[in-house]
Amino acid sequence: QVQLVDSGGDYVQAGGSLRLSCRASGRTFSNYAAGWFRQAPGKERIFVAAIDLSGDSTYYADFAKGRFTISKDNAKNTAFLQMNSLKPDDTAVYYCAAAETVPDLTVADYWGQGTQVTVSS
After folding, report:
1. What's the rounded Cα separation, in Å, for the pair 106 and 33?
2. Predicted confidence band at 27 (pLDDT cuts at 50, 70, 90)?
3. Measuring CA to CA, which residue among 68, 72, 42 is closest to residue 55?
């Protein structure tokens, strides 16, 4: 079992930056791939970024490429999502997820509670 706690969401102006954190407890994060998803009001939850168990490979949705960076500190049991050049369209609740492999993240058993990101124009 893994428990995930998301944090770092905030209200920020367009062009600003935020760093989201996902702290895991119960089992070490080194046993899991991690991912970030987001859900805007009235829309489905969508993939944002993912990182494999070792942290060597990362994957991004097209809208996140060049602006967002996912990372993972296995020693601290924490995954991060650095978001730069934020746009109003990035406004959403962001959720982290953990699974044994990156492809399994879309059906992950472990999810954080979500953290709200609001970007004003």
Report:
1. 11
2. confident
3. 72
